[in-house]
Write a structure and sequence with these properties.
single chain; alpha/beta; Dolichyl-phosphate-mannose-protein mannosyltransferase; transmembrane; 2 domains
């Protein structure tokens, strides 16, 4: 894997330089270039669910309260990303443009970190041309994760950092290194809590076998577990302040009447992987299966550094999909796919290493693969740049419409799906009817399937904001909250009739505002 001649070393440095130039261009085009839209930057830089984070971060930074609607305390978020956004909100003094710029700088740094650690992991398996190819493949889907503004981009970077540290040639099971290994694992969990599945798999396939082989002493294994203490601290703080150890946003999606695997959830995963925002997800899925079969068949264990770690990483996406589908029948979005770039880096590296022992001219093939990946990555970046337009951010435009309406119609609002931008832009964010940004008592209303009109009255709601398809509009709204919940989950239902006070059509969905302060 190491270059044998001066010309190869020069070529490898050029390849790495070109890859980093492409990554720098991506950071500039996909993130920092959004500043050209001025005050409208928030409308192009993030997806609607990001605004749930941003609204809570603003309330924490300015008022010291973890709340979305300004009334109910909530922990409906992954803590590390919320903490970062709160600091940025405080530093920006809640200026949209400054806040967006700071977030984009953090996103650019996370892209660079993920790319760096992906390259280091890949180099444990293969030569530089193949390693930079894998680096760009991973970076292309990390861009998608980061563009959403959600926590998943941070989780990918944290996961790759953890695994690069563990698979480095200098790792040993000393107390200090094992403690740092655990601390990095805690960072990953706090970036996205279901990443605890990867840590659990590492404990099964890496930490425990190492202890049995006496590579890790009892002190080393204990040091790893001790490094996880921030997670225990987070759970305890949650229990004391919110009465729930885990985020209520996750609980709101897990109110199913049973927990067998949900066909709806698994179908949603399949759609996102094979027909989503990037074909690289599908490529990674296929390669992970091939690599996992090869590794479990024991044909490649001798060729793999830290084989237990690799088994854990390759199993991670499938275990995560199974757990999500058992717990929830809601659809999934692209940020649920964050395990695939992590597993994809290992799968690609392992398969290239195996092929190098069987196929001649693999080095030349690596150069060709890098050239193709470089061109495709640069083209993809430019397409993202040219396709960015505030007019395409339908939820943000709806939020601006509701903001103008609310300025002339004070009162308490309620909204279910797509309420993120509405809440961020409103002086009084709505009661979030999906329960994602609410408290435990509100989830009980959903669990008991209470009448929606009764719930709205009990929360003092005057204005209900519906989200409907244009061809389904009528005098009445047959409201179902949460609308995204699958067939096995409880929902609140209610019929809301009357002439809407406002109608805001945006693309394939229309928002209508009804006065529900008096009975029909």
């Amino acid at each position: 894997m190491e270059p044998n001649s001066r010309s190869e070393r020069v070529r490898d440095r050029i390849d790495q330089l070109l890859a980093w130039l492409a990554l720098a261009m991506a950071a500039g085009c996909v993130f920092l270039a959004n500043q050209r839209f001025g005050s409208a930057v928030m409308g192009v830089a993030f997806q609607d669910d990001f605004y749930y984070y941003a609204t809570v971060a603003r309330n924490l930074a300015l008022h010291g309260r973890s709340t979305f609607d300004g009334i109910h305390l909530t922990n409906g978020y992954h803590p590390l990303w919320l903490g970062i956004l709160t600091v940025l909100m405080w530093l920006s003094r809640a200026s949209d443009q400054r806040f967006a710029l700071m977030v984009e700088c953090v996103q650019s740094a996370l892209l660079g970190a993920a790319a760096l650690f992906a390259f280091r992991i890949a180099r444990r398996f293969c030569s530089v041309p193949w390693a930079v190819t894998i680096q760009l493949l991973a970076a292309s889907v990390v861009l998608i994760q980061l563009r959403s503004g959600m926590e998943s981009g941070l989780a990918v970077a944290a996961g790759l950092a953890l695994l690069a540290y563990r698979t480095s040639g200098s790792f040993s099971w000393t107390t200090r290194r094992a403690f740092l290994y655990g601390l990095l694992a805690a960072t990953l969990i706090l970036s996205r809590l279901d990443a605890g599945l990867l840590v659990l798999l590492l404990m099964v396939f890496d930490v425990t076998p190492a202890a049995r082989r006496r590579e890790a002493t009892r002190t080393g294994a204990a040091a790893f577990v001790t490094g996880l203490f921030p997670v225990a601290l987070y759970l305890c703080v949650n229990a004391v302040i919110f009465g729930a150890m885990l985020p209520l946003s996750g609980t709101a999606k897990q109110l199913r009447r049973h927990h067998t695997p949900s066909v709806q959830s698994l179908s949603s995963f399949r759609e996102q992987i094979f027909h989503g925002k990037s074909p690289v997800y599908g490529l990674f899925a296929v390669l992970v299966v091939v690599a996992l079969v090869s590794l479990l068949a024991r044909r490649s264990r001798t060729a793999a550094p830290a084989p237990g770690v690799i088994v854990a990483v390759l199993l991670f996406p499938f275990v995560q999909m199974l757990l999500v589908s058992c717990m929830s029948d809601w659809p999934v979005w692209d940020w649920y796919l964050y395990p695939w770039p992590i597993a994809g880096v290992f799968a690609c590296g392992l398969l290239v290493r195996l092929a190098a022992g069987r196929i001649r001219l693999m080095d030349r093939a690596g150069q060709a693969a890098f050239a193709v990946s470089l061109v495709l990555f640069a083209t993809y970046t430019l397409l993202l740049l040219s396709g960015t337009n505030p007019a395409q951010s339908l939820t943000y435009l709806a939020g601006k419409d509701v903001q103008r309406f609310a300025a002339e119609h004070p009162g308490r609002y309620a909204m279910g799906d797509r309420a993120g931008a509405v809440g961020y832009l409103s002086s009084e964010p709505p009661i979030q009817l999906e329960g994602l940004m609410m408290d435990k008592p509100f989830l009980q209303n959903i669990r008991e399937e209470k009448d929606l009109r009764t719930v709205l009255r009990s929360y003092g709601v005057r204005y209900y904001i519906s989200t409907e398809y244009p061809d389904k509009l009528g005098r009445c709204v047959e409201a179902r909250e949460p609308v995204q919940a699958g067939p096995d989950s409880p929902v609140m239902r209610g019929t809301i009739c009357g002439t809407p006070l406002a109608v805001f059509p945006h693309g394939y969905l229309t928002n209508r505002i009804f006065d529900v302060s008096s009975p029909d």
